[in-house]
Amino acid sequence: MPNSFRHLQTTKLIIMYTYYVYILSNHFCTVLYIGITNDLLRRMFEHKQGGIKGFSQRYHPTKLVYFEETDDATAAIVREKQLKNWHRGWKMNLIKKNNPKIIDLSDGWFGDPEMNSG
């Protein structure tokens, strides 16, 4: 093989994702919704727009009160299922430990004031 040829190595492109397990509430904190996503900003936009059918459309959980992140999809799914099985009191303790005033953690993410008030 002539010297002008170089050995080309194939490299694998590894794409890393971040997965989020999140808890939403409605304005009065009477409803808790637990979900999982790999794009929290997009998912919050969808919740605030009201475009998610089912539970979200009916109860309007648009206030992000808690979230965790991981790069392990399986761990995120396991954690989501774990939190869904918790009693409401345990969920509220988790939320209050990390967000004592139970504010909307997504406040200010979007330019429209209507979308920022959960």
Give an account of the 3D structure.
The protein has one domain (19-116): GIY-YIG endonuclease, CATH 3.40.1440.10. Helices cover 36% and strands 18% of the residues. The protein is built from five helices and three strands. The protein has helices at 40-49, 55-59, 73-85, 88-98, 113-116; strands at residues 19-25, 32-37, 63-70. Strands 2-1-3 form a three-stranded antiparallel beta sheet, with helices on both faces. A hairpin with a 6-residue loop joins strand 1 and strand 2.
Helix and strand sequence: EEHHEHHH
Helix content: 25-40%
Q: Give the structural class.
A: alpha+beta
Question: What would the principal axes of the Cα set say about the shape?
Answer: globular
- When the domains are counted, the total is 1
Short characterization:
With 118 residues, the protein is α+β, with helices and mostly antiparallel strands. It is built from five helices and three strands. The model has no long low-confidence stretch (mean pLDDT 88).
List keywords for this structure.
3 strands, 5 helices, alpha+beta, 118 residues, GIY-YIG endonuclease, three-stranded antiparallel β-sheet
Secondary structure layout:
Layout: E1 19-25, E2 32-37, H1 40-49, H2 55-59, E3 63-70, H3 73-85, H4 88-98, H5 113-116
Antiparallel strand pairs: 1-2, 1-3
